[in-house]
Design brief:
Elements: H1 3-12, H2 40-59, E1 68-75, E2 78-84, H3 88-100, E3 113-116, E4 121-124, H4 126-132
Antiparallel strand pairs: 1-2, 3-4
Helix pairs in contact: 2-3
Length: 134
């Protein structure tokens, strides 16, 4: 993911993307986001939903373990969001987002599908699949 998109997510969600000392990061995790720009919108929406839920819990005086991202990457053609904290509701948000990524081009964000290019899985729209020979 481009540096400016990485930085935007870290700026918008400093509680989710912070370092081990609890300080906000300017870029996510050690390696940044290890996926294409096309998944920016679903990652952003997922983080927004996580933050909204945690704010709801906070307003209602409920205790919770805050979500802190440890790694965000593509694996087997699908988005993987690794984190600490959260609960079953957060797990549902993450599972839904990861499943949704198999229908969104990792390159451009258009409608896509999971493709097998001889053992390497990737989610691409028809245009990017053709460009890459899938």
């Amino acid at each position: 993911m481009r540096k400016e998109l990485d930085e935007a997510l870290c700026k918008n969600y400093p509680e989710i993307f912070r370092d081990r000392n609890g300080d906000a990061r300017t870029t996510a995790m050690v390696w940044g986001f290890e996926c294409g720009d096309g998944w920016y919108n679903i990652i952003n929406t997922m983080c927004e939903q996580i933050e909204n839920y945690q704010q709801y819990l906070l307003r209602n005086g409920e205790e919770f373990s805050p979500v802190v991202a440890t790694q965000v990457k593509e694996k087997y053609g699908i988005l993987r969001f690794y984190y600490t904290g959260g609960d079953e509701y957060i797990e549902g948000i993450v599972d839904l987002t990861e499943s949704l990524s198999a229908t969104i081009c990792e390159t451009c964000g258009a409608s896509g599908k999971l493709r097998d290019g001889g053992g390497w899985l990737i989610t691409l729209c028809d245009e990017h699949a053709e460009e890459r020979g899938y």
